[in-house]
């Protein structure tokens, strides 16, 4: 339900006097002008608010029309905050005023006080309707949460949690409710892949996010880093590519990634992304792009190479968000944007529902399901439900991590914001450091010569980034403003620059980490500890950030410049396979945990926290969720009871992706009789035609290929190799090409003098056993091999075929089946000149034998 303004009149009889109040939420204004919606004080005021993010230039008025049931005189209060008060006792810079029907009320707002509070704007006479405006005075981030009109000179209760906004806004007492099989909260890359994966497995999925665009940090400025070509399960990551906008065929192509040779970190190159990521888009999607359009309208040009690159990246980010929306909607995911979850109901150690508030309208919504995933980054859902969590650094006694401090502390990685200044024809002016006494102070001895943001500009290193997101962001504001004030006015290199871009939502690296049955630590990773439930793979270093010493000396407790640990040799991971048990809560039974709030220590977070890695973790969550849904079970039981089923899912990849399009997959294994070459014909081609004519939807898999008139057919035939060749390679081959059906025709390339039969049979058993260990559902057809006229070399084949029959029979399994590939095959008529390899007639006979066996089983 969309409301541009929501009002209720309350009557309280005291003697013969009646009082009336009207609440107006600023985020519901009809026209927000140059003000932006911010939600980072929600934990304090239970609402979003409007902020004048003008970078020192007053923004356009925000305005709306308010209707009054009782015209007359009203006292006007505004919920606001003097945001520099934690650091500065003087007048705050966020000054603004309220205007009613063009008349500005007498009292300026936002410059006094030291917390969110109701400040008195003045008294006004109103008719049945009034035109209300917020008028920014400075451009330095004034903020207004709500306006309260009261017949009496009485502000609302200063305890924001006691303010029943739903009742005052006229919404139902019970939130509008929605049910699903799976509710995912948090629309970053991990949340998107968890939702997409579960939906592609057939679940009814709701995705709830508090931003207008899906992608979390990725849509606000962070690169989608991480590598998907080194996975334990090569078919993990295709859904993450769908969500990221990476061309699926590039996923396992190492050349599609830019990787640092020294430490191995990096991510997909721009060329690895879908061409549509670079298409022109509607500029209204992005505050940065809207600003660019305004600058162009004023005659400014984009001359700096850095700015052109910056704008290209912003277009890719916004197109990425559009792509994510499309992919998720096509999969059937129901998406709720701009909903901030602030309540969780739990019974008996399980979440029953979560409640979120629409940041644009103020209306509450409830979401219920048997399963939930907390992909918020802050661990919000788990925290609200009472899940065990950690924050800060673990002490040495916790896991004896080499990099841990002696005692636990509150130090953590912080948050950053994208900002930029560029050369302009009309560069304008900016206040001097002396004119900004509330900002951090810089001088010739200490300043940062940067006109754009960088990863190492981050703050909130000892502050709770979950509950104090506004404070963390505001400290970053005053750092950038203070440094820019010095550069602009004192460094000739920057005199012609203008500060034009400044996002206002902090991109967080670390806050709460919810605890699972395994809390991954630094020792696990450095020792390459192998867990039985190894799942997604991380390749980033143990990259944790800490304050620069000189910055700490200058701004103790409020640092905003950091160093990274990724240059240390011991930080290099190479690759590591993270256990599934890091992805669910240890004490909230139906809660999965994804994104950077997964179950790891502070040190281990350094390697799993990048976007493409988190996307693959989301795929595992979605797979596990589908298994829970199928069996009516909970996340822990996926490990205890259904681990092989999860491994099978990871092996095959997400349905609907390039790796698992939902069709039958066949892996032909063998020597040159499978491979085919020259005038020697493989059975795979005529078998392909028989299967297609019978209506099967299938594809061949394998590391090798041969081109026919129907296109390229893949296979796993290696000319000149014997059965023993595959024994040390079968795990890698099958995990890379995890087919539903395996066809084994192997037994040549020995001599009778070697007495090879027993060794060939043992190799067959090993190959079969390893495939079934990886995928218990695989169907394996084992062929009695074709006869040969090359004698006496191959005179052992009759004995081999008798032993193959005995071996297959010993499995007593419908998944290990015998095929007499040589039935009707006479080497005199069916082989090429070498008397070994099938000619076209022989290939047809072999294909017919395979086909009959496949038909009986499939």
Short key terms for the protein model shown above:
alpha/beta; 23 helices; 27% helix; disordered N terminus
How far do the termini sit from each other?
51 Å
Q: What is the total tally of β strands?
A: 40
Helix percent band: 25-40%
Output mean pLDDT: 93
Mind explaining what this structure looks like?
The protein is α/β, with parallel strands linked by helices and 858 residues long. Helices cover 27% and strands 22% of the residues. Strands 34, 35, 36, 37, 38, 39 and 40 form a seven-stranded mixed β-sheet that branches. Strands 3, 4, 5, 7, 10 and 12 form a six-stranded antiparallel β-sheet that branches. It has a five-stranded parallel β-sheet with strand order 18-15-14-22-33. Mean pLDDT is 93; it is low at 1-19.
